[in-house]
Design goal:
alpha+beta, Cytochrome Bc1 Complex, Chain D, domain 2, Thrombin, subunit H, about 40% helix, binds heme C
């Protein structure tokens, strides 16, 4: 699949023209950002605004693998003393017309002042183009340009605001006006975690994965099917949600780094603890009087002034690089889960092997999905600890990454959220379901042939007659 990041200049940000009327919605900030000391908060806010803009003035930061749209071209001839060029277009050139925005993405004209302009005249028959925005330095053959850059992002935004925003929120935080009534909640794209992917463990979804979810929806949830959207609209909204996810992940990575030293809550908690220790030591030998929260914040402010010069540029660059690579990598062939063997014939013997694996300690499927596959395993009765904490959830049963209660699927209903082809179920078992406690079994607990046996068993559950289900129960009782 084509990736725009390799082609476009790195680091350049381009304003995608304002997006018209409508309520002046804003991107909201993460709680972690608003908890930073004001000086650090300001840097995060300004950087987000500079690099991503607002819902009404989108900015396309070109270092990310997002197809922002527009037609790319390569200069083949230069005429009129560098004031006119002949261009070979890579794709549909109908949008090359007077006043269309133009940017130079390679060659001497990519400098900050010269790179952006618009089409002055275009002769479609001769593919001859002149532009506004100066003629110095002159382009040379081989220079690359894009006309109508950001057009997809703009279309994507319009599709999103109309069809997705009321559930997924303006910022893609999964917190739109309708969201509070739904379970599971609409996806919060900002964590960059997507459930139903065809990719390996930590990988992002591919464009095809997002396309499937948008086209067919997620059965059994409120995520509707958008089969009726045109191809162009679907493609653009895919880019827009990738962009929203990237924006959210960027904010989150920067926050995580800054939170160590510059979180107000942490500073206050540390000061309170120090004071409590000091008070507890009353009467005994007094240690040095601890710093007040106000003094600690003031010290953090001084420290941040240093950090701003020495580390923040690297933090911004490093975060963008990491995220760009992760999204680009998910489109590489090596990220896709491809079964190493063809589907094992779906016969009684394979289903029986699958059933045994399902009930075995290798698979442990029954602990969550229940012995009969009804989604009522013992794990749904237990109290679980919050990840990375000693605290327990107040509700029994499993929870997702976003902290919401989550039921293992009732497999006897034959309703699959991530696609119902056997290979979809294979991938679900192989890599697990990201953002949920369902682990991956591929390359570790189960061999590919074994996963196919489990797929055959799981997919047969919706047709199983009661006696066979009773048999499943019996097996576990005997094996105890
Ligand atoms: C009525 C509410 C609603 C609307 C409208 C809606 N979604 Fe969703 N969407 C959801 C819910 C709920 C989920 C989470 C389902 C789950 O976790 O299984 C979701 C999940 C998703 C996911 C995550 C898939 C994954 O693998 O993790 C994507 C992507 C997505 N929606 C895109 C869109 C797009 C694009 C639109 C608009 C064209 C849209 N949604 C409109 C409710 C909605
Ligand atoms: C720790 C608990 C846990 C274990 C162990 C577990 N699962 Fe799951 N599984 C879940 C949860 C939770 C979901 C629902 C995730 C969601 O849709 O948000 C799920 C969903 C599924 C789905 C539905 C996929 C879809 O597209 O809708 C299948 C199929 C599945 N699991 C099969 C298995 C099999 C087979 C095993 C054993 C090899 C297994 N699971 C082990 C928790 C678990």
């Amino acid at each position: 699949m084509q990736r725009s990041c390799c082609y476009l200049a790195v680091g350049l940000t381009v304003l995608v023209a304002g997006c018209g009327k409508g309520p002046q919605a804003e991107f909201s900030l993460r709680e972690e950002t608003t908890d930073l000391i004001p000086e650090a908060q300001k840097v995060v806010k300004t950087t987000l605004k500079e690099k991503f803009g607002s819902p009404h003035e989108l900015i396309a930061w070109q270092r990310f693998p997002v197809n922002y749209g527009g037609v790319k071209g390569s200069v083949t001839e230069v005429a009129a003393e560098g004031k006119s060029v002949v261009v070979e277009w890579d794709g549909d050139a109908t949008q090359v017309a007077k006043d269309a925005p133009l940017i130079w993405v390679s060659g001497a004209r990519t400098g900050e002042k010269t790179s952006v302009g618009s089409v002055a005249t275009y002769d479609a028959a001769k593919k001859e183009l002149t532009w506004t925005g100066g003629s110095d330095p002159a382009p040379v053959a081989g220079d690359k340009l894009v006309i109508g850059f950001g057009k997809s992002l703009q279309t994507g935004r319009a599709v999103y605001m109309k069809n997705c925003m009321h559930c997924h929120g303006v910022s893609g935080d999964g917190n739109g006006p309708t969201a509070q009534y739904l379970n599971p909640l609409p996806r919060d794209y900002r964590s960059g975690v997507f459930k139903f992917t065809s990719t390996l463990g930590p990988e992002k979804p591919t464009r095809d994965d997002l396309n499937r979810v948008i086209k067919y929806g997620i059965p059994g949830t409120y995520m509707p099917s958008f089969l009726w959207l045109g191809d162009k609209e679907t493609e653009s909204v895919i880019e827009y949600i990738r962009w929203l996810a990237i924006r959210g992940e960027f904010e989150s990575r920067v926050d995580n780094d800054l939170a160590g030293d510059f979180s107000q809550k942490t500073i206050e908690a540390a000061a309170a603890k120090a004071k409590a220790n000091y008070d507890a030591a009353k009467g005994k030998e007094k240690p040095e009087k601890p710093q007040s929260a106000a003094a600690a914040k003031s010290a953090a402010k001084d420290k941040f002034a240093e950090y701003l010069k020495s580390d923040v540029p690297e933090l911004i660059d490093g975060s963008a690089k990491f995220i760009a690579e992760a999204w680009a990598h998910s489109e590489e062939a090596e990220s896709l889960i491809v079964p190493s063997v063809a589907r094992v014939t779906d016969d009684a013997a394979s289903r029986e092997r699958g059933r045994r694996l399902y009930l075995s300690d290798k698979g442990k499927c029954y602990t969550c999905h229940g012995i009969q596959g009804r989604g009522d395993g013992a794990a749904t009765e237990d109290f679980w600890k919050k990840p990375g904490s000693e605290e327990y959830y107040t509700k029994r049963g499993l929870h997702d990454t976003w902290g919401k209660p989550l039921q293992p699927r009732n497999l006897t209903l034959g309703q699959y959220r991530g696609g119902r082809r056997p290979v979809d179920i294979f991938r679900r078992i192989y890599a697990g379901i990201k953002g949920t406690p369902m682990p991956g079994f591929g390359r570790t607990a189960l061999k590919d042939e074994e996963i196919w046996d489990v797929v055959n068993f799981v997919m047969s559950l919706q047709y199983e007659s009661t006696p066979t289900k009773a048999k499943a129960a019996e097996h576990v009782v005997h094996s105890k």
